[in-house]
Design goal:
Length: about 190
């Protein structure tokens, strides 16, 4: 394969003066242009300009850290400090207040937008929403090991309204009233 690439690039770069521009030259050039465009432009191709994107990632991180904390401590953490999570410092997350609520069977994490000095939620993004993440313990089964399931929900109504807690009933996890599911995972 390496020898074929060497021959290809030699033929592409070293030409007979009478040969001119060939079909294979065009194919090679197009291939290189497409490849370089994909490599350089891929991160921006999939990036969403969304003021809440960082907040969802942070709620996911809290959920993941709660699962990890429970694995080693046999209980959920009571604070972000116990999870060894630093508050995010991006402009997108500075507009939120993060908090945790827990008991022996679940842990919830909240991201609630706070009002600015002017009294509005956020002048640039007036439709900013609250989020809640939940981690639930699944009762021990025949393997005698407790497992967990997690969910992230978004408040349907914009504003600094604390979202209703997710629900775990009869083995099914779902978002609370007035919220919509963004994802769940084991």
């Amino acid at each position: 394969m390496n020898k074929k690439l060497t021959i290809f690039f030699n033929n592409l770069l070293i030409k007979n003066k009478n040969q001119g521009w060939t079909y294979w030259d065009t194919i090679g050039l197009v291939f290189i242009l497409i490849l370089s465009t994909l490599v350089c432009g891929m991160p921006t191709l999939f990036a969403k300009i969304n003021p809440k994107n960082d907040v969802k990632k942070f709620i996911l991180q809290i959920n993941t850290k709660q699962i990890e904390y429970f694995t080693y401590q046999s209980k959920f953490a009571e604070s972000l400090n116990q999870l060894q999570i630093n508050l995010p410092t991006s402009k997108k997350t500075n507009n939120y207040t993060f908090s945790i609520k827990k008991n022996t069977n679940y842990a919830f994490s909240y991201a609630i937008p706070h009002e600015t000095k002017e009294g509005s939620l956020n002048n640039n993004h007036p439709n900013i929403h609250s989020y809640v993440g939940g981690v639930f313990l699944i009762p021990k089964s025949t393997t005698n090991k407790a497992t967990s399931i997690a969910i992230i929900c978004k408040n349907i109504a914009p504003g600094n309204i604390k979202p209703k807690d997710p629900i775990f009933q009869q083995g099914i996890i779902s978002c609370g009233a007035g919220t919509t599911e963004l994802g769940k995972y084991l």
